[in-house]
Amino acid sequence: MLIIRPLQETDLDDLYRMAKSAGKGLTSLPANKDRLAGKINRAQETFNQRCAPEAGMYLFALEDTELKQCVGISGIEARVGLEEVFYNYRLSTTVNASRELGVHVRTPTLHLSNDMTDTTEICSLLLSDTHRKGGSGLLLSRCRFMYLDDFRRHFSEKVFAEMRGVSDESGRSPLWDALGARFFDMEFSQADYLSGVGNKSFIAELMPKFPIYLPLLPGAARAVIGRVHDNTAPALKMLQSEGFNFNGLVDIFDGGPLVEAFIHNIRTVRESLNRHVLISRKPINLEVPAEERVMISNRSFRDFRVTTIPMQCIKPDTVSIPAEVAEALDVSSGDLVRLAPLKDAGRSPIQMVAH
Question: pTM of the entire structure?
Fold first, then answer.
């Protein structure tokens, strides 16, 4: 069984292994055991409410209960930019005109921005290569939307995701080579790593504060602004299906886009429903295609648990689940749980029940 739960100290070795295999570009989860241990500790402080929930880092593990192993991670940063300044470029247009000369020029321009300060970010999505099929990635990503809605008071109304931009196999970024390298005496991978681990003061000290006129950059650099890395394309497609849209901001290093949505407009939130648990004495076949499964969460702040069950388990007032699923979720008969589609099959759980 695959189950979502809060990240724990015992996950460190599994997390390090996944971060190491991810290679360059995943700056939020560097292959550094001390840094990863610090993230786990911060997540535990958050779930145990030893810090203000609004300032927390919520990290969820995907556990394969048969292997007793963490095979994926995803996260929510409650607010960005409150301790370290959060930078982006805003892609806009500068207009210059002369009526006398009959000239009207529109120039695409990048402006340094802190617009996402105090906004909730979904982040740190990483899945083991061994579990990339069968809807595991959907479960790992979409479970966060159920948590956001159940505990909405701790998060901003708007949520965003910063997508990985274009870089080659050696980790070189066309935008960095054309722009960042002119102001930072370091490789793209080093600058991105330092930013990812929280050492961002050098950005404020060295980044140009004036607008960047895109026609002055090489074509290769202009071409990647607002585009995602090939490996990130599936994640972007999933977020777009949830209602996320490009907001005009891009990463200052690789030009990757930021996409955003309001929590109440996210598809998983809109199509979710609550049901009371009924422990079934009859056997239930849990091995059904992703299109026929729903996520089920126990709605716990401190011990959040999510797994999947067949959609046919949903009844008008209850949801029937096997004892082993109830145990994994730590729920009993009569408890109120939340349900949401695992995959966009064109029908919500309510429509499936009616069908």
Answer: 0.90
